[in-house]
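Input for the complex:
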Amino acid sequence: MAPLLEVRDLVKHFPLDGGMLTRLLPGRPGRVVHAVDGVSFVVEPGETLGLVGESGCGKTTTSRLILRAIEPTAGRIFFEAQEITGLSPAELLPFRRKAQIVFQDPYTSLNPRMTVERIVGEPILVHRLVASGELRARVRTLLEMVGLQSEHAARYPHELSGGQRQRVGIARALGLGPRLIVADEAVSALDVSVRSQILNLMTALRERLHLSYLFVSHDLSVIRFVSHRVAVMYLGRLAEVAPADELFKRPLHPYTQALMAAIPTIGDGRASIFDQPERLLEGELPNPIDLPRGCRFAGRCPFRFDRCAEAEPELKEVETGHTVACYLYE
Amino acid sequence: MTEDQSDVILEVRNLVVEFSSEDGPLRAVDGVSFAVRRGEIVGLVGESGAGKTLTSEAMLRLVRCPPGRISGEVRFRGQNLLALDEPALAGIRGKEIAMIFQNPGASLNPVFRVGDQLLEAMRLHLREPARSLRERVGEILGRVGIPSAATRARDYPHQFSGGMAQRVMIGIGISCVPSLLIADEPTTALDVTIQAQVLALLRSLARELGVAVLLVSHDLGIISQMCHRVLVMYAGRIVEEADVATIFRAPAHPYTRGLIDCLPRMDGSARLGTIAGVMPGLRSLPSGCPFHPRCPLAEPRCAEEAPKLRSAGDHHSAACLLVGT
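Predicted:
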């Protein structure tokens, strides 16, 4: 079966110094932010791919690119075996129905002047999916699906709690009958007790509606819970891709290992990970404008050797389904 | 408790913070009592709106009154901070008790050099010649892990990353060698690898300088890895208190248990525990135990009687009617 989504060598560079003067001055090459720098992956039907990384690694840019909310600098995106890069807005309409997004902040991603009914109903109307007489019933069904009652339909976002708002965001995404939902930090703004409700809901919906998720998060424990496979991103590139169980049992890339070592999990109260600074990663993310030559992680990597400074390592399959971009495994 | 009473540096008794409103007074912190001992790291954990930040701010009278009203006792080295006059309190804030906030970018003044801000904190409190203090600036910045500290002292806050800015804040915090450091979500704005560096620094400084830390956090993982003792807050009250090993191994309060079950496990179990509903707002606090509408074990009496903290074992207490019965 063809993958639901396939991304090949996706690149997004944001130009800096974009002012009039620099464009007129000859001989000054424009500098760019290498937000996404050659990313390839697939999402299978019914699968959740977790995309994890720290701020500035390009995970949000990747999710926007996939939805064609922004245009890639280079690379190709296929959805249900059809290339969607290069399609006109009109040609994109069927894709827009099938690929939806749930945003991080349920406070700013819902229009405060609309009732829940309108928020959830509007995309359905725009795409003319039901007759206007049936809209109300359709919205009620959607609200029930995400665990809200029909009485919530008449409310405004400010009358709802954060968790309820995120349920509205999910209902809005589900309204068009999508096959892929991009969840960009969809639970990061929520408190733990509410977060677990939403995570359980999203997992149940995936099974019931046979959805695929691209689940973008900085939180490894959330990624571990929702994902079938996980892609670890660092500074615009994928460092490692593997089935979730495999990745958490045997992380190969030094960055993945460091990331896992840095998560404070509930321990036995005796030894603290923070008392072992030698296990923690040194330094900070390099500047995505002037990238170092070779492997982008080399500057912080405890295992670097000569070759790391020469050229950028490519993702290579080390075991079935487990790929890593690191010279240690070549 | 008696054997280490002499080590207690801070004791909070029945702290109450209220705000006047059209609907009458709203009680955001409701009778909080706890103690912090020398060199100890105490965690104050809870979800948003539990009253953690307000508790820590009220201890130093950083809550604007009115509309706020603070009552109770905050005993620090024999003095009640809530009864001190403003100059006396100013001599304690930043010197004996220092505070680090969540957003380091907003805590530093953008128009002054970082080194000067550190110097200002010391000049305010330490009677030493300016020259010797100036020398100490580089030393402190180096100690909190800022590379080429002497040069960086001349930089402005915007030239620092979030992690580095928080190191500066920690540097300012420890510059007068306080005996208590209040850290309110100090790493919530930081990435996980940077968070780990900053927390490792905080832990090592606490040990080396013998500074006690009150760590306010919503993150149970951080609390587990950082603290010796833990206070769990819910709807303005402390609902459970125990040492760190006990609270995660044998939580006594249904809320604490629920919170721990809500966390995704790294072993990848299939379904998460949940707590139904959300924390009540101050205008709609339920009668009796504030947790009872969400509690899976609630009995009819839970709606009537507000539970006080009661013993649930050695150095372990919980505010639940079902504990110890």
